[in-house]
Design a protein that fits this description.
14% strand, alpha/beta, three-stranded parallel beta sheet, 2 helices
Length: 114
Amino acid sequence: HIGAHPYDHYWLNRISEAEQRSQFNRNIEFLNELSSGQNERTMAYPFGGYNTTTLKLMKEFNFRAGFTTRIDSINDIGEFSAFELPRLDTNDLPKDPQSPFKGEGYSPHQGHIH
């Protein structure tokens, strides 16, 4: 699965609806070139920036899920809106794979997981 970010990685809550729509369209075109037929679209909001316009467009463009920058794990999917899901950055995970998740352990060489 390849998830989406807006094409130019803008803070969505700082641009107009027309600009957001353009970002969605350009990203979907790009993703379609990479993986034809993928219809399970997800998006991670750059810098956690989104607003009610973003949520409206997520529905309009048939996205299935949207990830915020809120750090949390999902134990019950019913706890969250499908377009306002928390996520874990690998920097939030412990370095020791045997230890339970406690949000501790930092490595500057790790990236995001969605």
